[in-house]
Structures are given as C-alpha cells and as structure tokens.
Amino acid sequence: SIVRVEHAVEFDLAASERTGGLPATARGSSLEVRTKDRAAVLEGTATVRQGSRELSADRISVELDQNNRARRAVAEGHPKIRATEGGGKITVTAGRFEAWLNPAGWVERVIGDGGFTGTRQTATGADRFSAARVELAMLPQSNLLKDMTASGGVTAELQQAGASQRLK
C-alpha cells in the first residue's frame, strides 16, 4: 500500500537516546510512504532539522529495514547541510548525500558525491574544502567523524587569525 500526503507535510520526532536527546522536525511539500518497498520519500523543499543541524534538499528518501527503522537515507536535488557548532557556522553541499544508519539510530557512514564543498566560518576566519567525492566513517553511537577519505580535485584552504594554509 501507498500513503501519500500531498500538501504542507510537517512532523516531529520526539527526543530520545537515539537522537542524542534532541527532537527532530521534518518538513516538505509532500510525503509518500510505500509499505511494500519499505520506503518513505519527502519531496518539495524537504528539510530535516535537529538542534542546530539542518539538511535540506529537493528530495529526501529513507529506506526502512524489516522492523521499519531507517537504514539508509539519500538526499538529492541541491542537498545542503547547515550547522552551528563549536563557535562556527558550517555549510556542506554535494550533488547527492547518502547515509547508512545503524538500527540503534546513529549514522555509520556518509558519502557526498558530485561536487562536495564545505565551508566553516568563525569569528577568526574561514575554512574551505572541496572534492569530487567524500566518504565519512563515523564513530559508533556518537555521530562524530572518525575518518574522511576525499578524492577528485581535493582542495583545502584554512584562514584563521591572519594565517592561511592551502592543500591541493
């Protein structure tokens, strides 16, 4: 069966241990849930916000496991991640983001493909990073970065407190 909500979709996910104690909100123009395919698709200007982090895209698709828990999410169509953390504003874009989720609720791995760019703006300067593809491995249960592998035209520019560094 298919359930479709065609206008002004908005729903809240309650705070829990799985969400790091933060509630999440999802919004979009439409939502389609396909029970046979175990999939949910939020379209339009789709936005998911949790705390100071926000993911927006034209389409956010979520694949569910046999227990209807999110196992994989894909953001397509101008996806952008924004966050305010550690005294700085972070913006990350790519042609497509794909994330694999642990059944306990944390992110295991993320791939940004199709022109990955990231910026971090702080009171003392700005950092910029770009690559064709970036793969992020996350620390278990924490949604913190463990390893990053970047490929294809990798460039990093760091400008903090009057000093600058560049890696290409």
Number of separate helices = 0
Task: Give the helix proportion (percent range).
Answer: under 10%
Low-confidence sequence ranges: none
Determine the N-to-C terminus distance: 50 Å
Strand order of the largest sheet: 6-7-10-11-9-8
Order of helices and strands: EEEEEEEEEEEEEEE
Radius of gyration (CA) equals 17 Å
Largest sheet: 6 strands, antiparallel, barrel
Mean pLDDT comes to 90
Our estimate of the beta-strand percent is over 45%
The assigned structural class equals mainly beta
The tally of strands reads 15
Anisotropy-based shape: elongated
Question: Any key phrases for this structure?
Answer:
mainly beta, 6-stranded antiparallel barrel, 168 residues
Textual characterization of the structure:
- The protein is an all-beta fold and 168 residues long.
- The protein is built from no helices and 15 strands.
- A six-stranded antiparallel β-barrel has the order 6-7-10-11-9-8.
- The mean pLDDT is 90.
Nutshell version of this structure?
By secondary structure, the chain is an all-beta fold. The chain has strands spanning 2-5, 9-13, 24-28, 30-34, 39-50, 53-64, 70-76, 80-85, 88-93, 96-101, 107-122, 125-138, 145-151, 155-160, 163-167. The chain has a 6-stranded antiparallel β-barrel with strand order 6-7-10-11-9-8.
